[in-house]
């Protein structure tokens, strides 16, 4: 979810001509591949980001221009893994501690100010940067990257199979998170699904003011980065009510993920409401391979 956190540093979609210049094997030698990509990629992305696209590059090399396909956007936190992992609670605790330590505040005041900045800006970090000149990358290192995800998030074979059952000749898969890049990439790698998506729209902590879900500009930006022009070609799944509500208002088709045990909203956020990602087969059947 992370409705309180999105992005400014776009991940560019490669042209069909560029795809044809790329090798179709997996990115096993990251240093050599990053050198080979540096002349054709507008922004020299890191090896970890380039590796993120291995599967999609292989598909594109054989399938040609895929830019006219619809895009299915996936949120990451509390969506690709269960809320019961309590990652969000751990994150909130780390944010409170960061406020207390770096602003020399008692715990109660740190919690209050964290809540105030979240309410006013949608992101606690934006208040820190605006009012206290906090280094956003230091924040990322001590909050997002400090989460003990390796002991919490494990490979999910069922989720991987679900994604592999999606017909890539019918739809493209893209990640859309309000977290920073390192956190998003870390999560999908731990889940064992980092090779299933063509790209990632994330929050660039160095870009202030931040633009994040559910702001309309965030949906516009993710479309631009994913290379899709028509909102009617955008499909979405997220655990945030407001993220799904505003996605539908922007013209997307959205599925609000409300896990079993979570109180259902009195009115639906968007066109669809599901309890588990496996229900994507039922609401978006056009994107799945026929059995």
UniProtKB/TrEMBL annotation:
Species: Akanthomyces muscarius
Recorded GO MF terms: nucleotidase activity
Name of the molecule in the record: Pyrimidine 5'-nucleotidase
GO BP terms in the entry: nucleotide catabolic process; pyrimidine nucleobase metabolic process
InterPro entries recorded: HAD-like_sf (IPR036412), HAD-SF_hydro_IA (IPR006439), HAD_sf (IPR023214), Pyr-5-nucltdase (IPR010237), SSM1_domain (IPR052791)
One Pfam family per UniProt: Hydrolase
Species lineage: Eukaryota, Fungi, Dikarya, Ascomycota, Pezizomycotina
Superkingdom, taxonomy of origin: Eukaryota
